[in-house]
Write a structure and sequence with these properties.
The protein is α+β, with helices and mostly antiparallel strands. The chain has helices at about 5-25, 130-135; strands spanning about 30-40, 45-50, 65-70, 80-85, 90-100, 115-120, 135-140, 145-150. It has one domain: Sandwich (Immunoglobulin-like). Strands 2, 3, 5, 6 and 7 form a 5-stranded antiparallel β-sheet that branches. It has a 3-stranded mixed β-sheet with strand order 4-1-8, with no helix packed on it.
Length: about 150
Amino acid sequence: MRNTNLPAIILSILVAVTVVGDIGAESPSLGGITVVINNVRDAEGEILISLYDKAEGFPRDRNAIIRTAVIPSDVSGQVSTVFDNLPYGDYAIAVLHDEDSSQDMTFGAFHLPKEGYCFSNNVKVRFKAPKFEKTKFTLDGDTVTQTLKMRY
């Protein structure tokens, strides 16, 4: 006696193996970064927040930015934003208080910044922008908060 259900049985086994294989696959872990900026000196212009995920291009190359936020400056002296749905990993933040709305840092005498700026981890600037390695922090949970102080 010949089993005519053999092709159907084989097909059922293949489908079951395929479905079970997908169940064990993990999706990348995602979290959020909350950015709070204090010491905003006035309500002129806007606050430009740039998020980077690698050293290459940090902090000057606009093509290296993975997310941005543009927030109207606030007389309260504080602004904040949240970057959601980011894969776990290392990140760095560069912030500009673009008071003249030029979309770029304005410099004065001796090439000193005329507008406010800050970087993740509140890294202080010494003659040039800091490296990614000094400003990077790790997102490895639901939310990481960076509370930064604007420098003028």
